[in-house]
Amino acid sequence: MRMIVCDMAGTIINEHGLVYKTLMNTLKKIGVKEDITSWYGLEKRRVIDTMVDKYGPYGDNRQLKKSIYLDFQNNLHDAYFGKKSKLSLIHPNIPNYFNELREKNMVVALNTGYNRDFQKKLIDHFNMESYIDDYISSEDVPFGRPEPFMIHKLMRRNNIGFPKDVIKVGDTKIDMLEGRAAECGMIVGVLSGADSREELSKYSTHIVDNIVNLKI
Questions:
Q1: Which of 24, 39, 88, 197 has the largest count of CB atoms under 10 Å?
Q2: Mean predicted lDDT score pLDDT of the chain
Q3: pTM above 0.70, yes or no
Q4: 10 Å Cβ neighbour count for 29?
Q5: pLDDT above 90 (res 18)
């Protein structure tokens, strides 16, 4: 294997499910009453657009979508970085674990359904640029998960010629489907985040409790 592509929230960052709780609380203003598990791993703007189309008033809702997305970003920022934040790495050994992989000439990359500005804030918050090689947001490609575009773009940027040389790691079914769509050599579900072992095992090649337990 030559590259590992890891999801962020629930896979390397412990955010206690705040992203989906915040998303639901933001969408309640238009009467959304959905099972949030169906949103796990999806691009957040895509979820908002879909819910506004379903629950919003008839007609052109572009402005409403922008307004709700901005509210969501502001609410999430407060939840993640406010005084009451409990944001942490999933495991304190993640920096050492990633650097050990890099010493083995593996490219360590992150991808996410967050927008690029929010992703950068998280990377800076945890000083991740000292232990990863690359990162990408769903905003940087035509379509986010479960489409394979983020993984394929990371491969091109890092001169990885074959998807079988890539490990995809995530905590949701959507992460696993992304890995399948990209034809990754290993698709690893972690039990530190959103989905259950039963759900992840349907789509993955390996299951571990925590990313640092993955032996490569």
A1: 39
A2: 92
A3: yes
A4: 12
A5: no
| Element spanning 118, H or E | helix 116-125
For residue range 164-211, list pLDDT tens digits in order.
999 999 999 999 999 999 999 999 999 998 888 999 999 999 999 999
Looking at beta carbons, which pairs linking 140-144 to residues 24 or more positions away fall under 8 Å?
Answer: 140/116, 144/42, 144/43, 144/46, 144/113
- Rounded-to-integer distance, Cα 38 and Cα 111, Å: 19
Residue 214, CA distances (Å) to 4, 52, 73, 94 in order:
11, 39, 32, 11
62, HSE (Cβ side, Cα atoms, 13 Å): 1
Burial of 43 from C-beta contacts in 10 A (0-12 / 13-18 / 19+): buried
Domain boundaries, the chain: 3-15+88-213, 18-81
The CATH number given to 3-15+88-213 is: 3.40.50.1000
Residues 56, 62: Cα–Cα separation, whole Å? 10
What length does the chain have? 216
CA 185 to chain centre: 19
